[in-house]
Please model this.
Amino acid sequence: MRFLKCATICIGLTALLASAYIVKEGDTLWNLSDEFLHDPFAWPDLWENNRHIEDPHWIYPGDSIYLGDSTHEEPVVQQQQEKPRKSTNPCKSAVADSSLPKGVSAVGCDDDDERGGDFENMLGDLRNRDKKQKKTKQAEDTYFYKKRPAPKIFNGYYQILAPEIYTIDSLKKDSSFFSVRSGERKEPLIHIPENEILVGIGKKTSIKAKKGDLVEIMDARAIEVPSSQGKSFDKYALLRITGIAKITAVGDTLSRAQILQSFREIRISQAKARLKAPLKTINVTGFNKNTEAKMEDMATIRFSMDPMLVIGAYSYLFIDKGINQGYNTGDAIAVWEKDKADPTIPPHLLGQGIIARAAPDEATVLIREVYSHNRRIEMGNKVSVTHKANIVQ
Model:
């Protein structure tokens, strides 16, 4: 009887030792899975069978690792049968063990086991992952184009503050503009509200002035814009509103005015002025999606209004298409970067904006969102209309 007990214990220890492994220096779960399970990608299964290992990236010499029954090699007759599906929850299929505490069906399946769940949740469901990563088909390049929400309702200030582009000749022939200079005894470098200016209109000039008229102060500077062929530059005049002044006294050829409001720095040395005319701001009630656009039909960014190295949100841009090409005030646009290495690769979506002011063959665009920090909006990027504005007539 004693001999039978010893034999039973020895057989049990032999079976246990055959399924266990003592970790040596340099061992990893990846290598042990490759050696004993013949599949290095099966290391999550090996980790699952050894709940005492908290971090699969760290196992230590002297640790005991249960290798499972798959390491036994016995000559058996192989029969073709369906492979059992792996349970997504090993604890539900575990065989109950009478030696375990009440309410625990298998080792490692209790809520208070020594391995925390946070680490496993961080790694994700490793057991259900494919052993070999399959290349998934990339989403179409129009995905974000279609999914982006319509912009908010158009703001009339976009039109008021939008820069204007003139050819040099057209600006010289435009009689609505007149001269402006400082009226202060000691001329400041930058004028601010309550400063005085002198404007070149009066009682005997072609443009008549009267007390109380409002004057727009425009910052005017010459710019060079790359031509549509990109081989030369075209000269333009860039005008931006910098402030509003009110005429306080009228003379024959000059009138005195006081600055009421400034939108940015007012440098009289590079300023022009004109009487403030009512601007008919558009009223946008909504937008209709435009889901398709061809690269050859897109507009091109020709100039950035702001003197910045990086074009960011709320920067004004000048594009080479306008009303005649379907780019109207109020329409929402997207900015694209075309891949120069291979034109067949879908372009990158860089940002979204809105057309603040449209002319027959060019338009001023306000960037409202920038999507990438390492891909910048630059001159030469393409622009397409994503939403057509519904305007109240």
